[in-house]
Amino acid sequence: MKIVIAPDSFKESLTAEEVAEAIKRGFQQSIADIECLLCPVGDGGEGTVDAIRHSLDLEENWLQVTGPFGQKEEMRYFQKSQLALFEVADLVGLGKIPLEKRNPL
Questions:
Q1: By residue range, what is the domain housing residue 65?
Q2: In 3-state terms, what secondary structure has residue 77?
Q3: Separation of alpha carbons 93 and 73, rounded Å
Q4: How far apart are CA 17 and CA 23, in angstroms?
Q5: Same domain for 48 and 71?
Q6: What is the pLDDT of residues 14-56, one digit of tens each?
Q7: Residue 92: phi, psi to the nearest 5?
Q8: Closest Cα to residue 14, out of 40, 39, 38?
């Protein structure tokens, strides 16, 4: 049996790749002779660039940027030839906002 495993990330918990691997392990423990094709996906938000970087064979690079509170930090981006991708969530996403500073009102 062959199956495609195509999950999104679990916000602030697991990347799409980690979710796919966990599902794969569950299937392999339950079903003999199963072949799993992992195809992590994203919905356009957190984890999307990670989900597509492998299929495009992008090289990981780092750049110094200014974070949401004016702090200097390193941010990764992915590049191949004239194409460069970065994920805004890596800079200003919910995971970058400390719990004590999260105040939607």
A1: 58-97
A2: strand
A3: 14
A4: 10
A5: no
A6: 988 899 999 999 999 999 899 999 988 877 777 788 778 877 8
A7: -130, 15
A8: 40
